[in-house]
Design brief:
The complex is a heterodimer of chains A (339) and B (345). Chain A is an alpha/beta fold. Chain A is built from twelve helices and 14 strands. Chain B is α/β, with parallel strands linked by helices and 345 residues long. The chains are: A alpha/beta (339), B alpha/beta (345).
C-alpha cells in the first residue's frame, strides 16, 4: 500500500518508528526531539509512542550527547542522534569525527559504531550564516561517515531504514526546504510512498531525468532545482539528464561516468561551499572515467566561498538558483565544442 | 603527605571496617607492581633508537608515550571493584587503567609496539587502546572520556543491567566543558557512572595553580549534587574504599559518584619531556609517598606480608611483564595492505 506523502520529514520519522517498533536497541537523543520532533520533524511522533525512556531530550550539549552516543554504541545500542542544524556541528564535532567515525578502525574492528545522525541543512529562507549551511563535505572528507542526502520522501524512508540497519556511522542530511513542514517553503514534490518498510542501498545514484545534451549532478534540494532548470532548457530543445547522488559516501561513480560518457557535458550543482568540496570530488571522478568523452570542460555551480548572507537578494546570489543553473547549462553547451 | 599515616591500631581498624582482607591487599600490591614494571619496561624499550638524538619516530615504539608511574594506586584501587562487563573509558595515559581493568598485558604491549597481535591489530597504538572483551577504550583527546562513559552507563541503566561505567581523566581534563555537561546528565538520568579525576598536578606542562581557579575538583561535582570523594591517590586503601562505595552505589541504582584522587606522576608528561616546569626536589618529595612502597610497608605492619612475600609478588609481576614484552617484540608487524581495511564494518 502506498499513500501520497509531502516531504522527507514524515518519511524519516516513519522509518524510525517502524524500526523502533521491532528493535529495542534504538534510542533517540538530541535537542527538542520530543514535543518538537527535532524541530525539522525527523523524530515527530516518536515521543508520543515510545516515551522518554527511548526518545530523550538532551541538554544543549552537543559534545556530550554525541559522546554518549559513542559510549552507548560501544556497548550495543543503536543511538539516533539529532544535530538540529548541521551548523551546530562545531559544538560536538570532536566526538563525531575523532571517535564515532574512527573507533571501529582504531579498535581493529572490535567496536562497531552503529550511530545514525540526523541533521537539517540548507538555506533559502533567511536564516543566515550560522543556520543555513550544508557542510556535508566536511563529513564526507573524514573517513568513517556514510553521507546520505535524500531528495525525495521515497528515498528518505528507504535510506533511513538502511541507515538504521547499518553497523556504521551514517549521517542523514535532510534539507529544510524538502521537509514538507508548514512553516517552511517546499521545493520538493508530493509522491507515493509505501506504508511497509523497504531499504535503498547506499552508493546507488538515481537518474531523475534522462537527457542527451548534458548531465547535471546534484544532491538534496539542488536535485529539484536542476529538474526545474531541465524543464526550462527543454523548452529550448535542450535535453538535460539529472542525476541525484543520494549518497556522497559511498559515491556511485559508475552512474556518473556512464552519464558523462553519454552526454559529454557535465555540470555539477551543489549548495555546499565550492572549494575543496563535493563538486571538485565529483569532477575528479568524472574526468578520470570519461575524459575522452567530454566535449567541454566540466562546470560547477556552488556557494562561492562566502558565508550565507541574510538579506534576500544577497542570499539569492550565493545559493544556486534555477536561473543560475540554466545559465550555467547554457554556458556549458556553448563552451569548448571539440571536433 | 596530606593525609596522616595511621597508627597501627587505626590502620587495623580502617582495613577491618573497609572489609579489606590480606588476599585483596596482596592482589592489589601485585597489580601495582605489574603496572610499575610494565611502564618502566615500556620506557626502557621506548628509548631504543632514540638516543643520543631523541627522535619520536625512531626505535621499536614510535610516537608519543605517556606513562603512569606513580599513579598505580588510582587505577588498581578502582579497577579491583570492576567486572569484565563494566565499561572503562580512559585517556591518553591509559596503560595503568587498562591493566587494572584486566586487559591482557601481552596484547596491550603488542599494540604499543604496533604489532598485528596487538589489541587493535596495530591500528590504535598507545593512546587508542580498545578491548571489547573487557569493555575498555580510551581516547587521546582530553575531556572525551566523560560523555563516552556516560553513554555506556546510560545503556546499562536503560537495559536494566547491573553494570557501571568509569571515566578516568586528569585534572587538566576537568577544565573541559564535557565534565560539567556530563555531571549534569549523569544526575538527570541517574547514570551508574563513576568519574575519577587523577590530579597529578600538571596538565602537560601547566601546573594546576596556573590553570585551575580552585585547587580541587570535588566542588564541581557537589555543585550538581553528585557524591564526591577527595582521596589520597598515592594510597591504595584510600582509593579502594572510596571506589567501593561509589561503585556499589552505582550498581545498586543510586546514580553517579565523583572521585578526585590527588596523585603524582614520577615521569614527564611524555617521554622526552625535559620537565622544566618542576624541580627534581619536588619529584623526590613525592617519591617518599610511593604508593607501592607505602602499601608494602602497611602490609608488613599489619603482619599480612613479610619482605620475602613482597619480593615474590614483585618478581611474579616482573616475569609476567617480561613475557608480555617478549610476545610483543617477537610478534610480526601487520601486512601494509591492512591499513586500507576496516574503516567500515
Amino acid at each position: 500500500m502506498t499513500r501520497t506523502m509531502k516531504g522527507i520529514a514524515f518519511a524519516i520519522a516513519e522509518a524510525i518508528d517502524q524500526e523502533m517498533a521491532e528493535r529495542s536497541d534504538i534510542i533517540v537523543l538530541g535537542e527538542d526531539v520530543t514535543y518538537w520532533g527535532a524541530v525539522f520533524g525527523f523524530t515527530m511522533g516518536l515521543y508520543q509512542k515510545y516515551g522518554r525512556d527511548r526518545v530523550i531530550d538532551t541538554p544543549i550539549t552537543e559534545q556530550t550527547f554525541f559522546g554518549m552516543a559513542c559510549g552507548a554504541a560501544s556497548v550495543g545500542m543503536h543511538p539516533i542522534v539529532s544535530l538540529m542544524f548541521v551548523d551546530f556541528l562545531g559544538a560536538g564535532f570532536d566526538q563525531m569525527y575523532n571517535h564515532i567515525a574512527k573507533n571501529h578502525y582504531m579498535s581493529g574492528g572490535q567496536f562497531a559504531m552503529p550511530v545514525t545522525i540526523l541533521t537539517a541543512i540548507g538555506g533559502g529562507y533567511g536564516d543566515a550564516a550560522q543556520h543555513s549551511q550544508v557542510l556535508y563535505g566536511l563529513f564526507a572528507h573524514v573517513p568513517g561517515f556514510k553521507v546520505v542526502v535524500p531528495a525525495t520522501a521515497y528515498d528518505a524512508k528507504g535510506l533511513t531504514i538502511s541507515a538504521l540497519r547499518d553497523p556504521n556511522p551514517v549521517v542523514i542530511f535532510g534539507h529544510k526546504l524538502l521537509t514538507g513542514l508548514p512553516f517552511l517553503p517546499f521545493e520538493g514534490q508530493e509522491e507515493e510512498v509505501p506504508e511497509e518498510r523497504y531499504t535503498i542501498e547506499f552508493g546507488q545514484a538515481a537518474v531523475r531525468r534522462e537527457g542527451s545534451d548534458l548531465t547535471m549532478i546534484a544532491a538534496g534540494l539542488m536535485v529539484h532545482r536542476c529538474l526545474r532548470a531541465a524543464e526550462e532548457l527543454a523548452r529550448d530543445g535542450i535535453s538535460a539528464e539529472v542525476i541525484d547522488l543520494r549518497t556522497l559516501v559511498p559515491l556511485d561513480t559508475g552512474t556518473l561516468i556512464a552519464s558523462a560518457r553519454k552526454t559529454g557535458r557535465v555540470l555539477i550543482v551543489d549548495e555546499d561551499y565550492r572549494s575543496y568540496g563535493m563538486t571538485g570530488e565529483v569532477a575528479f571522478h568524472v574526468q578520470a572515467g570519461a575524459l575522452d568523452a567530454l566535449k567541454a570542460p566540466i562546470r560547477r555551480l556552488a556557494v562561492p566561498d562566502v558565508p550565507i548572507p541574510f538579506s534576500e537578494p544577497l542570499e539569492r546570489t550565493v545559493i544556486p538558483s534555477v536561473e543560475q543553473i540554466v545559465a550555467e547549462a547554457r554556458a556549458l553547451l556553448a563552451a569548448g565544442a571539440r571536433a | 603527605m596530606w593525609k596522616p599515616e595511621p597508627s597501627l591500631a587505626d590502620l587495623r581498624y580502617a582495613v577491618e571496617k573497609a572489609g579489606l582482607t590480606p588476599e585483596t591487599l596482596l592482589t592489589a600490591y601485585r597489580q601495582m607492581c605489574l603496572i610499575r614494571s610494565f611502564e618502566e619496561t615500556i620506557a626502557d624499550r621506548y628509548y631504543i633508537g632514540k638516543t643520543p638524538q631523541f627522535n619520536m619516530a625512531a626505535g621499536p615504539i614510535r610516537g608519543e608515550m605517556h606513562l603512569a608511574v606513580g599513579q598505580e594506586a588510582v587505577a588498581v584501587g578502582v579497577g579491583m571493584h570492576l567486572r569484565d562487563a563494566d565499561a572503562v573509558v580512559s585517556t591518553h595515559r591509559p596503560h595503568h587503567h587498562a591493566l587494572a581493568k584486566g586487559v591482557p598485558a601481552d596484547k596491550l604491549a603488542a599494540e604499543i609496539f604496533g604489532k598485528v597481535t596487538g589489541l587493535c591489530r596495530g591500528k590504535g597504538g598507545h593512546m587508542h587502546l580498545f578491548d571489547a572483551e573487557h569493555r575498555f577504550s580510551c581516547s587521546g583527546i582530553v575531556g572525551a572520556s566523560f560523555p563516552q562513559a556516560a553513554g555506556a552507563a546510560f545503556a546499562f541503566r536503560h537495559r536494566g543491567e547491573p553494570f557501571v561505567a568509569v571515566a578516568f581523566a586528569g585534572e587538566g581534563a576537568a577544565n573541559h566543558g564535557t565534565l560539567a555537561e556530563t555531571l549534569n546528565v549523569a544526575v538527570l538520568w541517574n547514570l551508574p557512572l563513576i568519574i575519577v579525576i587523577e590530579d597529578n598536578m600538571y596538565a602537560d606542562s601547566t601546573p594546576k595553580w596556573q590553570a585551575l581557579a580552585q585547587p580541587h575538583q570535588f566542588q564541581r561535582a557537589l555543585g550538581f549534587n553528585v557524591p564526591a570523594y577527595l582521596v589520597d591517590g598515592m594510597d591504595l586503601i584510600d582509593v579502594w574504599r572510596a571506589a567501593k562505595e561509589a561503585i556499589e552505589r552505582a550498581r545498586a541504582g543510586y546514580g553517579p559518584s565523583f572521585i578526585e584522587a590527588v596523585c603524582y606522576r614520577y615521569r614527564g608528561h611524555f617521554e622526552g619531556d625535559a620537565e622544566e616546569y618542576r624541580t627534581r626536589e619536588e619529584v623526590e618529595r613525592w617519591r617518599h609517598l610511593d604508593p607501592i612502597a607505602r602499601l608494602g610497608e602497611r602490609l608488613k605492619r599489619l603482619g599480612w606480608a613479610d619482605e620475602a612475600t613482597l619480593e615474590r609478588l614483585q618478581r611474579e609481576a616482573e616475569e609476567e611483564v617480561a613475557r608480555a614484552i617478549a610476545f610483543a617484540e617477537q610478534s610480526p608487524l601487520p601486512d601494509p595492505q591492512e591499513a586500507l581495511a576496516g574503516v567500515f564494518r
